[in-house]
């Protein structure tokens, strides 16, 4: 009997790579999905492809979008600087509707594949305050997904799995290391250079570094 299929959203970063390992541990055949959405940190796309291949994903797909056409984020608008100091409220690195768009496309691919699980690496503990990383968002999207699809209407219920949702960054790192994840292949930085080296200053870098420190594990991140 063949393994069930799952679509796994991967960015090339620490969280989504850990989620891929978790899905594989659950014996899913994993189809990984990344987005070329106009982000300034494009080294993540190479990292996503590399980790997917290295970890044995059945297929890796990159969907091209251009969220830069609507702007509104330091990650898609070169005229907005990536902040290197902590800020209050929802930071300017929030990309409007990003996870909604990504999950919608993942939903479409899941239908085509006959997959009933979508894995996503959102986190509501050690995150930057993004509204589309909260449990209530994931629950609401799952309800919508089963109302909006042929598979859902025909009784093949689709689930959105967010296994990191309540974990700290240190717990995520520990879980990934236990599953054999090679974090040196991942890129989390919002402004990584073309070689994938991290700035060490942005919010994502700070959270990542703190995770390794609190996990009491060596940080394999390559910094500029």
TrEMBL record:
<comment type="function">
    <text>Catalyzes the ATP-dependent conversion of 7-carboxy-7-deazaguanine (CDG) to 7-cyano-7-deazaguanine (preQ(0)).</text>
</comment>
<feature type="binding site">
    <location>
        <position position="199"/>
    </location>
    <ligand>
        <name>Zn(2+)</name>
    </ligand>
</feature>
<dbReference type="GO" id="GO:0008616">
    <property type="term" value="P:tRNA queuosine(34) biosynthetic process"/>
</dbReference>
<dbReference type="GO" id="GO:0005524">
    <property type="term" value="F:ATP binding"/>
</dbReference>
<keyword id="KW-0479">Metal-binding</keyword>
<dbReference type="GO" id="GO:0016879">
    <property type="term" value="F:ligase activity, forming carbon-nitrogen bonds"/>
</dbReference>
<keyword id="KW-0436">Ligase</keyword>
<feature type="binding site">
    <location>
        <position position="205"/>
    </location>
    <ligand>
        <name>Zn(2+)</name>
    </ligand>
</feature>
<keyword id="KW-0547">Nucleotide-binding</keyword>
<comment type="pathway">
    <text>Purine metabolism; 7-cyano-7-deazaguanine biosynthesis.</text>
</comment>
<keyword id="KW-0862">Zinc</keyword>
<feature type="binding site">
    <location>
        <position position="189"/>
    </location>
    <ligand>
        <name>Zn(2+)</name>
    </ligand>
</feature>
<dbReference type="InterPro" id="IPR018317">
    <property type="entry name" value="QueC"/>
</dbReference>
<comment type="similarity">
    <text>Belongs to the QueC family.</text>
</comment>
<dbReference type="GO" id="GO:0008270">
    <property type="term" value="F:zinc ion binding"/>
</dbReference>
<feature type="binding site">
    <location>
        <begin position="10"/>
        <end position="20"/>
    </location>
    <ligand>
        <name>ATP</name>
    </ligand>
</feature>
<keyword id="KW-0671">Queuosine biosynthesis</keyword>
<keyword id="KW-0067">ATP-binding</keyword>
<feature type="binding site">
    <location>
        <position position="202"/>
    </location>
    <ligand>
        <name>Zn(2+)</name>
    </ligand>
</feature>
<dbReference type="Pfam" id="PF06508">
    <property type="entry name" value="QueC"/>
</dbReference>
<protein>
    <recommendedName>
        <fullName>7-cyano-7-deazaguanine synthase</fullName>
        <ecNumber>6.3.4.20</ecNumber>
    </recommendedName>
</protein>
<dbReference type="InterPro" id="IPR014729">
    <property type="entry name" value="Rossmann-like_a/b/a_fold"/>
</dbReference>
């Amino acid at each position: 009997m063949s393994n069930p299929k799952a679509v796994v959203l991967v960015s090339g970063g620490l969280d989504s790579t850990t989620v891929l390992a978790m899905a594989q541990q659950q014996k899913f055949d994993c189809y990984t999905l990344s987005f070329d959405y106009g982000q300034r940190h494009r080294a993540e796309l190479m990292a996503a492809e590399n980790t997917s291949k290295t970890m044995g994903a059945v297929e890796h797909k990159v969907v091209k979008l251009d969220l830069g056409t609507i702007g509104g984020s330091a990650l898609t608008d070169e005229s907005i600087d990536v902040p290197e100091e902590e800020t209050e409220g929802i930071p300017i690195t929030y990309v409007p509707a990003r996870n909604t768009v990504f999950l919608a496309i993942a939903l479409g691919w899941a239908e085509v594949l006959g997959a009933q699980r979508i894995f996503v690496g959102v986190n509501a503990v050690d995150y930057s305050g993004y509204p589309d990383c909260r449990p209530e968002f994931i629950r609401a999207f799952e309800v919508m997904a089963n109302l909006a699809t042929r598979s859902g209407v025909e009784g093949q219920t689709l689930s959105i799995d967010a296994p990191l949702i309540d974990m700290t960054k240190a717990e995520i790192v520990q879980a990934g290391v236990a599953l054999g994840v090679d974090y040196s292949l991942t890129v989390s930085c919002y402004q990584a250079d073309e070689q994938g080296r991290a700035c060490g200053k942005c919010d994502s870098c700070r959270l990542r570094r703190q995770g390794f420190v609190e996990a009491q594990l060596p940080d394999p991140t390559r910094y500029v």
